[in-house]
Amino acid sequence: MSTSILVTAKINPDLDGVACTYAYSHFLRMQGKNATGGVFGQMHAEAAYLVDRFGIDDIVHDPAAPFDSFILVDASDMAGMPVVIRPEAVMEVIDHREVHSADKLFPNAEIQIEQIGSAATLIVERYRSSQHPIDPHSAILLYGAIYSNTLNFQVSIATERDRIAADWLQSQTAIPAHLIDDMFAAKTRFASEHLQDALLDTKQVTIGKYKMGIAQLEILDLQQLVDVRINEILTELEHMKKEHRLDMVLLTAVDLGNGFNLFITSDSQMQAALSKVLHIDFENNTAKKTGVLLRKQLVPLLRSVMKN
Ligand SMILES: [Mn+2]
Fold first, then answer.
1. How far is CA 119 from CA 106, 210, 251, in A?
2. How many angstroms does the Cα of residue 75 sit away from the middle of ligand 1?
3. Which of 39, 84, 144, 189 has a CA that sits 20 to 30 A from residue 266's CA?
4. Distance from the CA of 281 to the center of ligand 1, in angstroms?
């Protein structure tokens, strides 16, 4: 039998991870390869919404079979990856991170890591340069992933290539009107109904001697949620701080409709650092900034002012 390949993203993948896993494993199977796309843990709300709405019933969850080799999509290190992956057996890495050391971590892998809005765009480009037709479910997931990762093309890391990929998908598949609005609304509903779970999307970062947790939320009508539930958010952040023994915690939240960030933290050092680097003022532990900044853009800025 031919080499068995597992295509997968991080555990609890976002839509970009789910879309790449699904669409790239389809692509490889059309090339005659024995590839399985595996989703580990819980998909993020946007992915769950599209899977449900379009009846995508062939997603493989937590595959247990042993695999000969591995392909990582929307991921380029071992943090948060399924335990089945053996780094020396990783044959390919497809990701869109700025800083990585994938060549050292995966010495046997072919690596494509480019600074663009979504990993989904890289998968779309593979379809475009092949003769393989794209199936409607792959197209819908990739389309949603490009809009999700670029926050509706509001982030500065979005490129023309992401735009071209999204337009091409639209030419291949009927995309329902308002699909992206519907998807963002579903994500917003999820955050409102399960605020604690939504805040679990937290990254731990060490800067100088400080261990910090940075939660991220991207929803519609952000100001409204924060106005009503600021105390709940602060309580949850404090809880996170105790549980993970962090020195500071921050929520960076993006309004998907109106293009601004709210930063929420009760840590005075964090407030001081953010005020300095972003020229913002905190009031009631909250500060607003026009324009959209992603967490991965925020971390280097924090490093620049908190090094010591
Ligand atoms: Mn991504």
1. 18, 31, 25
2. 8
3. 189
4. 30
Rounded Cα gap, residues 116 and 137, in angstroms: 23
DSSP per-residue string spanning 119-148: HHHHHHHHHHTSSPPPPHHHHHHHHHHHHH
Q: Ligand 1 center to residue 118 CA distance, Å?
A: 5
Ligand 1 centre from 296 Cα, in Å?
11
CA 292 to ligand 1 center in whole angstroms:
16
What was the pLDDT predicted at 233? 97
Residue 230: predicted pLDDT: 97
Domains parsed from the chain with CATH numbers: 4-184 (3.90.1640.10), 194-306 (3.10.310.20)
CA 38 / ligand 1 centre spacing (Å)? 16
- 150-163 tens-digit pLDDT: 999 999 889 999 99
CA 218 to centroid of ligand 1, rounded, Å: 14
Residue 128: what pLDDT?
A: 97
Q: What is the pTM of this model?
A: 0.92
